[in-house]
Amino acid sequence: MTALLCFTQLEGRTSVSWVPVLLNLGAHVLMYYYYFLATFNIKVWWKKSITVLQISQFVIDLAVIYFCLYTHMAFQKGGYTFGPCSGGEFAAYFGAGLLSSYLLLFVEFFVKAYTKPAANASKKIASKSL
């Protein structure tokens, strides 16, 4: 899906695509550095922070993308705008939809990986004390 996303953004000539590309690049550099350390069994304290960074990246990406999508549509309809954001509408909607789904997937991963075990451990302790 990401390859298709890149294709649609290049083909649609979206002006905002540099924001997700740069933020994604930064997040992936840190993520792959973590994987590099993990191959040598080096434990790091910031593993959870990588997921938080990726979620934050998608929130920022989507804020910028939805702003540009609004601006593009408002400019076409003569509404209040900061000027046109260039790019095809299909590319804009596809990118916004796909990145929204990525955000939901990362939030779901975060909940499953970092919050459920703690909640289950609390339930086990509570049930043992009864």
Give the strand tally.
Answer: 0
Mean pLDDT: 85
Uncertain regions spanning at least 5 consecutive residues: none
The largest pleated sheet is described as: none
Structural class: mainly alpha
Beta-strand level of the residues, as a percent range?
under 5%
| DSSP helical segment count | 4
Helices and strands, in N-to-C order?
HHHH
Work out the helicity level: over 70%
Task: Write structural notes for this entry.
By secondary structure, this protein is mainly alpha-helical. 81% of the residues lie in helices and 0% in strands. The protein contains four helices and no strands. The protein has helices spanning 2-12, 18-39, 47-77, 89-129. The radius of gyration is 20 Å and the shape is elongated.
SSE layout and pairings?
Elements: H1 2-12, H2 18-39, H3 47-77, H4 89-129
Helix pairs in contact: 1-4, 2-3, 3-4
Feature tags:
single chain, 130 residues, mainly alpha, 0% strand, EC 2.3.1.199, transferase, Fatty acyl-CoA elongase/Polyunsaturated fatty acid specific elongation enzyme, acyltransferase
Brief sketch in words of this structure:
It comes from Entomophthora muscae. Its EC number is 2.3.1.199. This protein is 81% helix and 0% strand.
